[in-house]
Design goal:
Radius of gyration: 20 Å
CATH class: Alpha Beta
CATH topology: TIM Barrel
Strand order of the largest sheet: 4-5-6-7-10-11-12-13
Number of helices: 11
Distance between the termini: 36 Å
Shape: globular
Number of strands: 17
Mean pLDDT: 91
Order of helices and strands: HEEEEHEHHEHEEEHEHEHEHHEEEEEH
Helix content: 25-40%
Low-confidence stretches: 1-21
Structural class: alpha/beta
Number of domains: 1
Strand content: 15-25%
Length: 404
């Protein structure tokens, strides 16, 4: 089995011989883009290395682990891993009703048991406290901020993702595009004064049944019902009316696995980052390193080699409940080798050692039960105090000195 060490994290990290454990300092913000690089405020290139902090997209709208540890302690543990950002998924329906009214219902108190300041609050209020804790509060305490990338993961709260959840577009039969835009405007209004926040506009564009017919996302064809690029442009313009400097992250087609359309039809807005997702099931079994790299460069890597736009792997991950030898062979080391060559920005899926309930939208199938082991986690143990030390060691080559 992969090592799930119940040992102090900082002691474990000292054994890894990391190139550096240097988060992004507050002085590096606001970030901006130039060609295929993300630059700090001083113009020096930076690399984003992070982890998805999921749960907020699921049934109850609360990120994992807030019942286990204080948010500030979780932030310290993330920083101690050598990571400098988190991607925080959410669903529109946790914040707004389908008609665009605020959701005022309180999140279950049990989900925030280790964070009493969050008790009796709505998911939207909890997210605001969490982001402040990871960003401005850390800076006020003399710590480096943890950059927060907020990700619209679903329209209706629940488990993601599959074609049959009917959440592949920014709208569906129950959730209109105007509500989607209103949600992003509300978020941008709230965080406009916080330079440590970015926006990942829509998760994994994919087929959905809308109006009784299957629709497939397109890129750059101008079809207002299917053109993901056009939706990104409209959404960025809405966000920038409140928060003009924040980075916006734009995912590719086919579950974010295909960014081939960007070359001839770029999103065309300043400070945008292309977002790629990659998992073993995106590739044929037994693929060689050369074939893997050719596929990845054709789908997305060309954006870096041709200096078009920064490229961020907003999700990639593997099962840590397997023998270590299995982790060190196959897809994961192929990804790590390719990502190193392309100076890829990246965000592991995911942080949590334990799940919260996840019901698939549209089908109402319960796909994840509360308390279930999260097999892709960086944390380990029901108390969130263990760490996947072997996995962190494998990721160490992707953690260079930051910024630099």
């Amino acid at each position: 089995m992969a090592q799930n060490a119940q040992i102090p994290l900082l002691s474990a990290l000292r054994s890894f011989q990391y190139a550096a454990l240097m988060p992004l300092p507050a002085s590096a913000f606001p970030l901006r883009t130039s060609g295929a690089k993300i630059l700090g405020a001083d113009g020096a290139p930076v690399r984003l290395a992070g982890v998805n902090w999921g749960g907020g997209q699921q049934d109850e709208g609360v990120p994992y682990g807030l019942d286990k540890l204080p948010a500030s302690e979780i932030g310290d543990r993330i920083a101690a891993m050598g990571l400098n950002h988190v991607r925080i998924p959410f669903s529109v329906g946790s914040f707004l009703t389908s008609k665009g009214s605020p959701v005022t219902a309180h999140a279950p108190a049990a989900r925030t048991a280790a964070n009493p300041a969050m008790t009796g609050l709505s998911p939207w209020q909890i997210l605001q406290i969490l982001v402040n804790e990871l960003t401005v509060n850390r800076v006020s305490q003399g710590k480096d901020p943890i950059y927060c990338i907020l990700n619209q993961h679903l329209l209706f709260p629940g488990w993601c993702c599959a074609d049959e959840d009917n959440n592949g577009f920014w709208y569906n039969d129950n959730w209109g595009a105007l509500t989607f835009l209103a949600c992003w405007k509300m978020i941008a209004d709230r965080f406009a004064g916080n330079p440590y926040v970015g926006y990942d506009l829509h998760n994994e564009p994919r087929k959905a049944t809308i109006g009784g017919a299957v629709r497939t996302p397109t890129w750059g064809d101008g079809n207002g019902l299917t053109d993901v690029r056009l939706a990104y442009q409209v959404t960025i313009d809405k966000i920038r009316s409140s928060d003009p400097d924040a980075l916006c992250f734009c995912e590719g087609l086919s579950y974010a696995g295909d960014l081939t359309g960007w070359k001839n039809a770029p999103v065309g807005r300043q400070n945008t980052v292309a977002s790629l997702h990659d998992y073993s099931w995106f590739h044929p079994a037994g693929q060689t390193q050369a074939a893997y790299e050719a596929q990845m460069d054709a789908k997305a890597g060309y954006l870096v080699t041709q200096n078009i736009v920064p490229l961020w792997a907003g999700e990639f991950g593997a099962n840590t409940d397997v023998p270590l030898a299995s982790m060190r062979s196959g897809w994961l080391p192929r990804f790590i080798a390719w990502a190193g060559k392309r100076d890829l920005h990246w965000c592991w899926w995911e942080l949590s050692a334990t799940a919260v309930k996840g019901t698939q939208p549209a089908t109402n199938k319960v796909r994840v039960q509360a308390g279930q082991r999260e097999a892709f986690s960086l944390m380990a143990g029901q108390d969130w105090r263990g760490t996947q030390t072997d996995l962190l060691a494998m990721l160490a080559p992707l953690m260079p000195s930051l910024p630099g």
